[in-house]
Amino acid sequence: MRGQLPSQPSFASLISVETLIAADHPIRPIKRLCDEALRAMSGHFDEIYAAAGAPSIPPETLLKGKVLQAPYTVRRVRQLCARLQTDLLFRWFVDLPLDAAEFDASTFSKNQTRLLAHEVADLFFYEVVEVARRNGWVSEDHFSVDATLIEAWASLKSFKPKGAGHGPGSGNSWTDFKGEQRGNATHESNTDAEAKLVRKGPGKEARMCFAGHATMENRHGLCVLFEVQPAVGAPESAVAVDQAIELRNRGFKPKTNGGDKAYHTAEFVTGLRELGIVPHPALKAGRKTLRVVCTVAHAASQKVRKRIEDIFGWSKATGGVRQSRYRGVARTHAHGQYVVATWNLVRMAKLLLSGPPKGARA
Predict the structure, then answer these.
(1) Is beta strand 187-189 parallel, antiparallel or unpaired with respect to 159-161?
(2) 229 three-class SS
(3) b/e map of 272-308 (b: 16 or more CB within 10 Å)?
(4) Which pLDDT tens digit goes with each residue over 36-45?
(5) Which of 242, 275, 237 is nearest to 258 (CA)?
(6) Domain shared by 145 and 235, yes or no
(7) Whole-angstrom Cα distance, residue 274 to residue 315?
(8) How far is CA 84 from the centre of its chain?
(9) 169 vs 180, residue with greater confidence
């Protein structure tokens, strides 16, 4: 029998959003792990918010919104607020009641300024890694390092001689760079002065970029350290040594550290050996003086270290870090921390549901 449309829709009903989310939905373990990390941050939130006055958007809601942006590829805060208005799953994830009004995009963005000033993104990333450590998913002694370029929100047209300023019509004027020698020493972007002109390799086009540096543990491929720095300055090998020191400060006991050929340098090899860490870089031809021995452990590190490309690939293709949405290193760094922390949550949720995959020894 054909059903009939109701003459008047119901204006009131009792419903639990919890029952509308499938019991085996992969977002459930992600929310559970995210809540565990946020509970550890409650004391820090009490310190950065005033005890009296009008209540603001809960910081847990702000961070959960950041987490949702990455796996669902929500590019802007305005799009996130629109999804909160119409998507029950989004409301359930950020603990927003059905009868509560969605947040205004400008208010949502202004509240994030406080989180940026108090380095909440770094703390959130740290607490996510601590959740993984408590569950035994993180190797304490074997790691891999790599770096990637993050395209800045600045065009080549904005890369002009230092002190040129913003003249009339300079916003999007016709520009001919033929025959002009341009470099970071004499030029800078009028849009983002912290973005640097670099190229990925010989024969590649030059772009305005930042540099993202990551350290991955080798057991399950989780990222334990991630930071964004200017693309010109400290080389990859120097940042990798600094991150190895940071691992020690956070209670890890690194024994080996693998990398690609960019890390087969005296700075990386010598720096790690001074810390008592065995360097496992991919070997460059003609650099025999560094004496990196190709042992079985070295071969295992070289096999496992390629997993770090999964972190960069997901963060760029799904998380939207291929090109920064923000100006400056600080805001790009915070955004990268949220996205890579979300990658960890997604990876940890898979481990929670299906158990760790069989792979190379960590």
Answers:
(1) antiparallel
(2) strand
(3) beeeebbbbbbeeeeeeebebeeeebbebbbebbebb
(4) 999 999 999 9
(5) 237
(6) yes
(7) 33
(8) 23
(9) 180
Helix (H), strand (E) counts: the chain:
13, 8
Within-domain flag for 175: no
Helix then strand then coil, in percent of the chain rounded to 5, is 45, 15, 45
Q: Does any domain span residue 2?
A: no
279: its two tokens: 């360097």
Q: What pLDDT is stored for residue 180 in this prediction?
A: 73
Cβ neighbours of 43 (radius 10 Å): 8
> Chain-wide mean pLDDT for the chain?
88
Neighbours of 103 (CB within 10 A): 21
Helix ranges restricted to H, the chain: 17-20, 27-39, 42-48, 59-69, 77-86, 88-93, 105-117, 120-134, 236-249, 266-274, 296-304, 308-317, 329-354
Q: Domain range spanning residue 62?
A: 23-118
The b-or-e profile of 169-199 (16+ CB within 10 A means b, else e) is eeeeeeeeeeeeeeebeebbbbbbebbbbbe
Strands 256-259 and 142-151, how do they pair? parallel
In the chain, the amino acid numbered 106 is S
pLDDT at 158 over 80: yes
Residue 334 pairs with which residues in a beta bridge?
none
Q: What is the model's pTM?
A: 0.89
202, pLDDT greater than 90: no
Number of domains within the chain = 2
